[in-house]
Every structure is written in structure tokens, then in C-alpha cells.
Amino acid sequence: MEEYAIEMRNITLSFNRKVANDNVTLKLRKGEVHALLGENGAGKSTLMSVLFGLYHADSGEIYVNGKKEEIDGPVKAGKLGIGMVHQHFKLVHNFTVLENIVLGIEETKGGILQLSDARKRVLELCEKYKFDLDPDAKIEDITVGMQQRTEILKMLFRNNNIMIFDEPTAVLTPQEIEEFMIMVKNLKAEGKSILFISHKLDEIKQVADRCTILRRGKCIATVDVADVTKEELSEMMVGRKVSLKVDKKDANPQKVILEVNDLYVAGEKGHKDKVRGVSFNVRSGEIVCIAGIDGNGQSELIKGITGIKPIKSGSIKIDGEEFTNKSIRYKNTHGISHIPEDRHRDGLILDYNMAKNMVFQQYFEKAFSNCGFLKNKEIIEYTQKQIDNYDIRSLSGPYSVARSMSGGNQQKVIVAREMSKPHKLMIAVQPTRGLDVGAIEYIHKEIVKLRDNGIAVLLVSFELEEVMSLADRILVMFEGEIVGEFKDIKNLDLNELGLYMAGGKRMNMKEVA
Q: Which one, of 476, 472, 434, 435, lies nearest residue 450 by Cα?
């Protein structure tokens, strides 16, 4: 008889009469990596939240190592050896790495926190798994990749043998993803049983043994990953054939829309400038992509252009108009749309509902307000139209609180808002982060459609496949500077591009200009 680490039998869970999981059965073998695949809002995270004790199923049974269990909360899940790394990390930002790891199981003596033994064990785990992590660093001061390692260390510190990863690579750089995949394989080799939620078919093919596909809350199939193609997986996931290739004609650039000249953006206190002397332009009818390894000034460049972060010197023009010192509202209402890198911090007000988030850059316009009073009916109708156009899934439609929505559907709200309002320039940073293949296909088509309708598009992406598929022109950033520009994308050597991204080669940009 086959041994299972986890058996979830006939799990059903509803919210406000809307079924999130509909009679779902999932079986995780001991020592396997089992992928959970589905569209945004298919019920994947909800199902894992049931297993971790955050939600209680309306019906169904859970067996852990062959024994039926009632998991009434994360503490009980932890005692059963189940750990979970959530898509949006559960960390206390003003605590250190070490304090977060021991939180809830900390050792005290006479009311005083004892960390010496815990520190020793954490350092041993860091050495074993090759995690370059300072136990005394505060969470707010470390990268997203390091925050994820902190979450993983929490599970390892607690000796969890059943590990749940919810969209673990959605916020990682390509280099961090590669390191994460190696770590997953090592954990499997140690006998850990892993549930792996991902939209990325390449990752599932790389590390998963089996895959269960959910669609609109129902279990469609469980398959051996080696026996199916990416195309077959994507079709099972969305219920139709999905084109994984971007179909676009050659660009026809016209007038300059965005003009950035000798821009400098400061780093954090005591650090050198993050953007140094950057100059470039983007024309109407073209997609210019900024490529590079994360942390080389891309984020600060975009924040400087959009006004989120003050610039130190330099100038920014939109369609010939000086925009350098304009307010964020002015930029939003005079030609710039912006899909930000951090959807929680810069893209949404999480405690507002979807309708308010959809119009918070336009609520003061005549279409949505009258004499200072909101036109709620018009706002709801407008939001419902975007829900239909972008297939945004939530429990209460326009009234859904943003915080309650899945990460992918939060991203769809931002994309819908920014693409639907009038603009001359679309700035999109990681626009498909956390989205399923069907949504990615749609967003890519919409970006190309914007270009073909004469919009200037500035794209920042750490996904090389996305860069190569969408870009008409590529600018490479390294250590805050533009070090290369490529126009012949079809014949571009990826190895050469990688050299520029890593700082191994650079062009004289004055000669290129």
C-alpha cells in the first residue's frame, strides 16, 4: 500500500455561498515534490490554507502520515510537521531574522529571551543550505529573496517534514530562482515532502514529480509531470489552448514620448547613488525594455520617473513637457500609467475594496464624482466592466477588499486600472508577476496592442523570456548605469546579453546615441 505524507479527501470550502474548493482530493507521497497548478483564483492557496489550519473546510477529511487529523490552526499544523511559506511573507519587519525564526517557540529564562542556542542552530542551517543570511539583520533591511530564506529557515528550524511553498518564485530574481530550485531538489533528497504552488510551467517541469490541476475550485486531474507537455498542462489549467509565444509585428516608432536626461537618484543613507547619469528615450509605438539583474538601479529609476522617489538631478520630459518636478497626481493625470513593482506598497490600498482601488487615481473626475460626492453606481459599473475584461476573480466582485484577494488577482486589478485610463506612456514593472499562463498571454497581447495604438511602453522585467518576447529595444542596466543598447532583438545572442547584465561588457553609450 502506497504511503502518503498528506491525504486531503473531498475537501469543500465556501465563502458567502461561493465555493472556493469543490470536493477536492489531493495526495502527497512521502519524499515527492507535488505541484499544485491552476489559474489565479482557482483555489490553490485556499486549499493549502485548509491544510495549514488557517481555514476550516465545510466537509472533507485530512490524513497526515496515514492518521486522520483535525487541524484547527497553524500551531497544530506545526506539531504535525507541516510548514508553509506564504506568497506574501508572514514576517515582522522590525524584528531581526533570528527573532522571526524563533517567534512562537522562543526559549526564555527568568522572562529573558535566550537566543544563543537558536543562533548557533540557525548558523548551522545557513551553512548546510548555503544561505548567505545575517541572523541579526532586520527584515526591513534585507532583500525579498533573503526574506524568503528566512521563511524557509523557520520551517527547517522547526524540523517540518511537510513543506508548502505558495508561489515561491513570484518575487525572486532569475539567480535566486535557480538557487531555490537547487534547494528544493536537496530538500527532496533529504526525504522532505513538498507541495509546490506555481504558475510557471518550466519550474513545474524542472522540480515536480506529479501535478494536481485545479480549475475554478474543482480538481481536473493529477498527472505525472514527466508524461505531459507544458502545452498540455496549460490547456488543462485554463480549459483552452494557450499560446506561449508572443505574436507581434515589427514596431513603427514615431515621436519621442519619454525623454530622460542625465538622471541621478540617491541610494539609501551612506550609500552611493543608485541611478547615475542615465539618459534614454522611449518613442510612441515601441516597447523599450530595461533588462538587468535585480538591484542594479531599475527600481530607483522607475520610482524617480514616476515621482515615488525624489531625483537628485537630471530631467524628465513627457511629450516635450517638463515633468521633472511635477506631482505624482499630475503625472498620473497627464499621460503616465504605472504598473509598480511592489503591488502592496505602491499599487493598492489593501483595506479598500476593489472599486475604490480601481478609481483612486480618477475618483475626482466628473465621471466618478459630482460636487465632491462619489458616484458610487458609476464606479461599481466601471469596476465590473474591468472585472469582465480582465477576468478578475474574487468573492464579492467590486466590493471585495483588496487584502482578501489572491496575489494574481490583485495584480490584475492594477493592470486593469493602469491600462484602462488615458495615457501616453505605460511604465510596466514585472507586469505579469504572479499571473497564470492564460493571464500572461492576455497581458502580453494588451501590451502589444498599446504599442500598436501608438502608446510608448517602458517595460522592466527580470524574466528574460518576457524581455525577448516583448521588447523592440533593450537597454541593459548595471550598477545604476545604462551599459548597453540592443535593437536587433531577433538576432541577439543571450550569452552576450548576459555578459552586459553581469557587468562583463559595456558599450560607450555616447557613441551609441
A: 472
Q: If the chain, 513 residues long, is cut into consecutive pieces of 10 residues, what is the mean pLDDT of each piece? A: 86 88 94 91 89 93 93 91 85 89 82 84 86 86 82 88 86 74 90 89 92 92 93 86 80 95 83 90 96 86 93 95 94 94 89 95 92 93 94 90 88 93 94 81 91 96 86 93 91 83 78 55
Cβ-count burial of 389 within 10 angstroms (0-12 exposed, 13-18 middle, 19+ buried)?
Answer: middle
pLDDT of residue 314: 96
**Left if phi > 0, otherwise alpha if psi is -120 to 50, otherwise beta: which for 262?**
left
Q: Which sign, positive or negative, has the C-alpha torsion 467, 470, 474, 479?
A: negative
DSSP state of 66: T
What type of residue is 232? Answer: E
Distance (Å, whole) CA 240 – CA 232:
10
- d(CA 125, CA 413) in angstroms, rounded, equals 39
In order of start, what are the domains of the chain with their CATH numbers?
A: 4-238 (3.40.50.300), 256-512 (3.40.50.300)
Nearest C-alpha neighbor of 445 from the set 462, 464, 431: 431
d(CA 290, CA 464): 11
Please give the Cα distance from 72 to 52 (Å, whole number).
Answer: 9
User: What three-state secondary structure class fits 93?
Assistant: coil
Q: Which amino acid is at 122?
A: V
Name residue 194's amino acid. I
- d(CA 288, CA 475) in angstroms, rounded, equals 7
